[in-house]
Task: structure prediction
Amino acid sequence: MQKEYAVQMKNISKHFGGVKALSDVSLYVEKGEIHALIGENGAGKSTLMKILAGAYQKDSGEIVIDGKEAKISSPKDVINLGVSVIYQEFMLAPDLTVAENIFIDKLAGSGKWINWKSLRKKAKEQLFNLGFDDIDPDAKVGSLSVAYQQIVEICKCLARESKVLVFDEPTAVLTFSETRKLLSIIQNLKANGVSIIYISHRLEELLEISDHITVLKDGKYVATVATSSINKEELVTMMVGREITQLFPERKAKIGKEILKVENLYAGELVKDVSFSVKSGEVLGFSGLVGSGRTEAMRAIFGADKKNSGKVIYFGEEVNFKDPKEAINKGLGFLPEDRKKQGLLLEQSIRMNTTIASMYKIKKFGIINHKKEKEYVKELLASIATKYGKMDDNVNSLSGGNQQKIALAKWLSADCKVLVFDEPTRGVDVGAKTEIYKIINKLAEEGVGIIVISSEMEEIIGMCDRAIVMRQGSIAGEVSRSELSENNLIKLAMGV
Amino acid sequence: MELGINKEVTKKSKKLNFKQFLIDNNTYIILVLLIIISSMLSDTFLSSMNLRNIMLQQAGPILVAIGMLFVILTGGIDLSVGSVMAVGATVSATLISELGVNYVSAILVAIVIGIIFGLFTGILVAYAGMQGFVASLATMTIARGVSFVITEGKPVKLAIGTLDTIVSKEAFYPIILIAIILIIVFALVQKYTSWGRIVIAIGSNTTAVQLAGIRTKRYIMSTYAVSAALAALAGVFIAARSSTGSATVGMGQELDAIAACVIGGASLAGGKGFVVKAVAGGLILGLIGNIMNLMAVPSYPQDIIKGFIIIAAVILGILTNKSEKNV
Result:
């Protein structure tokens, strides 16, 4: 019997600048099935779904929806074809009511005027069908819990008569019982003939509810398997299991005394009881899923966010950095994960970006010595092989890798004794990656204590002397150099 | 591969050199064209008396535009400058004519009181987290009210030989000299001091600047203080020229100052703008008013024409930004 497909994405490729995000990836979703899509961070799942949703345009390949080739040039096209994506961050208007949100794109039905009575009635029906008649159609969406907001989002998609629903990490923000409820809703939807694409890091869930699983790795298609024919260990092997080549240069650093020690740190709502230490010349990895609290913990130590409690001991002395300036004055630097939003002044010059954290070197009594600055920046950028036109060009004229080097140069210039690198190679091509690793190695060889937060397990394994894995705001475990493997890291990160 | 791309870029940029020159200097080019056109339209335009009048008239508004520019660079806006000008005018006039204070001290006191208003707005913005628009709107009302209270609603007359000394003294014009010196000083401050650099950096990306270890709040606050100090001085200039301290001084001047910055290529989103270009922007506005006066255009049509010129300048800026991105 010929299989009927709801969505066929054939040989999709996509570049971002010089970076190949997807090459030749295919995804075939049968009608009325739950199809899971998995892969590590950066494997290309989100990119593939954004192409399906019309948020990105594919470079090549073909998308067939319900047997017809789909020309997708905007998100609206896809919605009209009956495909809806439910992102982690919901597309809801918090100040509008549940009913208004559900029918946001057809408030007036076919007429000109809104019939509030029928709108409320239809919303009530939608909620009832999902088993959530306890949600008040007149409640403001912003007043609902995250789980209920998700229900509203699902109702919105169903109100559009969507035949395909994409869930992007739907359970990441839900509690255990909410997760159970959502999974049963998804199974109900399937029973009603809706096809589901389900993205999640939680392997147990996938194995429980999906019919097929497609695995992606490094922007490439690995395999599509029937869920009944595979177990968790085999899945993990498919997701990882790649050889690490010469990407990671050798390091000859001498590991010395302990310079930063954190004890029982609590911060924000997420970070709970985090303790660890770093020695001079050591590269300590922080692994875990996105949202596991690594960045939040480091920001609290750096003084960018408030600590709730806990001790930070820095060179044998207890410190409590109230803002980043205090931390930097004492030689603690922090390279943020999002270079565009937090790291760089994109519309300002390369020169200004390089010296912004170390202006004391180029000024006297508040006056900047431009000549000295130019020589200094030239030398510094040459030492890390940065390619640029003129140093007064804006940073956004550079490629991603070179932008990241400017962000690094800022911290090199600040003469740090401990440096936290948050996702130092995100969105950077392979060549620049190796060069960034060389810079990290050089710093370690000079005795700087280094913390690398990375969601790429390959990077943690290739670069770190030791790795700490975080899960849901706490430390799930520590892995020594000899035991660093993707298997061990994934197991700790997912709590397998 | 990346080297290849770089080579291509340099080739392109050589072709675009002339175009780039026009784009970079569009404010100055408009100013020069305006001067040429004005001198053709009116014989008296280039007369020394008219030029002196322009300079005396524009000295104040240009200083206000410079102050406004620093606030705008941080991504803020200061609507209170017009009212703070009135504070400057009424405080100095009252001190001189009612309390017999000498004019130099009176000017300094007026500036200090202006700074207090600026710090007030700055604290509301930087530390209380109010938007610049809202905070300075409040200060605008307060400052205007204060100047009416000071003068009890009546203009304060100044005796000859007091504040008018700074307008002209034996064929010498202190106001013009002060303005020129301050323009130069602030142009240098923007380019050569860490303050100038941090102010523009904050408007570019406040988060990144904070994470680089800079306490951004005090810098944001200081720009409002600078803006108010210059506004108070501009108010003193007006009191000096009219020999009157009136609480109605500077009405609507905040909008001219913002327009001058925008014509000078500043972005209201922050992070982009130059002192000298804002000065040129202020002069453009002043010259347009001047030439229309010389040609006896009534004042209401003048406003209409001014409005269109602001739109033209901003559209030019938008086009400029687009072509930069295409390169």
User: Anything to note?
Assistant: The first helix of chain B runs from residue 2 to 15. Chain B touches chain A at residues 1-3, 5-6, 9-10, 192-195, 197, 200-201, 204-205, 207-215, 271-272 (CB under 8 Å). Residues 266 and 273 of chain B are 4 Å apart (CA to CA).
